[in-house]
Amino acid sequence: MALLYGIYTALWQLVTSEGFPPKPQFEEKDVPDLSGKVYLVTGASGGIGFELAKILYSKNAKVYIAGRSEENGKAAVTKIKEEHPKSDGGLEFLQLDLSDLTTIKPAADKLLSQERRLDAVVHNAGIMAPPTSWRSAQGWDLQFGTNVIGPFVLQRHLQNILVETAKFAPKASVRVVFLSSIGAHAAPAGGINYENIEEKGIPPLTNIPGLDTWLKYAQTKCANTIMAKGYAEKYKDTGVIAVSPNPGNLKTDLLRYSILLKTLGWTFLYPPRYGGLTELYATLSPEIDQSKNGAVIIPWGRIGPMRSDVIKNCETGGALRFWNWLEEHTQGF
Length: 333
Description:
Distance between the termini: 38 Å
CATH topology: Rossmann fold
Shape: globular
Strand content: 5-15%
Number of domains: 1
Low-confidence stretches: none
Strand order of the largest sheet: 3-2-1-4-5-6-7-8
C-alpha cells in the first residue's frame, strides 16, 4: 500500500504544480553583483549545475565546478568564460568523485587552501536509475553512494568554512542546497527504509522487474530532502540555511540510463536552464530566510510540499536521526 501511495503521489505532483510550474519569478536579472562571493557546485560540467554556475559567474562570483572528469570540467570552464567574457569572477574545476569517498577530502582541502569564505554549496551532482548491480568504491548501491553518502561527506569537510562565512556575510545568505527530485514522493514509508540502507542500499525495495532502481532513486532523493531538514535542525544556530529543491523535469544527461524517458521526454521535459533557475532561487533568493530553513523548493522557485508521512517523520526526530546515522556510517572519510 505504501508503494502504491508513493507512486500515486509522485504522478499526481507530476501532472499538477511540480510538473507544469508557472513562469519563474527569480531569474538572472534579479541577481545582484556577487563580486567577492564564492560558490561550489557539484556536477556542474553540464545540465542544470552548468546553468547555475554560468549565472553565478556572470554576476562576478568565484565558482568551483566539481566533478569526476577533468576534461569535461575544464571544457565547461572554457565555455562559460567564452559566454561571459566581461565577468570579473573566477571559475575553477575541482576534481572529486562522489562515488569514491577517498577523493572527497583532498578536493575539499584544495578548496580550503585557496579560500577564506564559502557562500554556498550546491550538492547538484547525482545519478538516476543505473543498473542495480552497480556499486560505489566503498560498496554502496551506486545511487545511494553518489546521491547521499558522497554529498554528506563533502558537506562535513566544508561545514566549518560555511559557519565562519555566515558570521560576516549578509543574514541568511549562506546556503547548503541538497538537490532532490519529484521522484522523492515515491520513496518508502517515512522516506527511508533503514533495513535497506543498513545493508548499503543493496537489497531490493521491490521485486517488480525494472522498478527497483527507480524506487532506490526515489529513496535517495527523499533522503536529500531529509538531509536538508536534519541539517536545518542540527545547525539552526549557525546562520547557515539548508534547502532541498526539486529542480523540475528536465532534458539533461541524468536521463542517460532511461530509454523510455529519453524517448518520451519531449512531451513533459523542459530545457536545463529552468532547473538552473530553481537552483538559483534556492541559492540566492532573498525570500529564503531562517523561517524557511529546511524547506522544500519546487519548480521554478517556490516553497513546496512534501509527503505527509515524510513530514511527520522529520518532525518527530527522523531528520536528525538520519543525519546522525550518516555520521556513524561515514567515519574515517
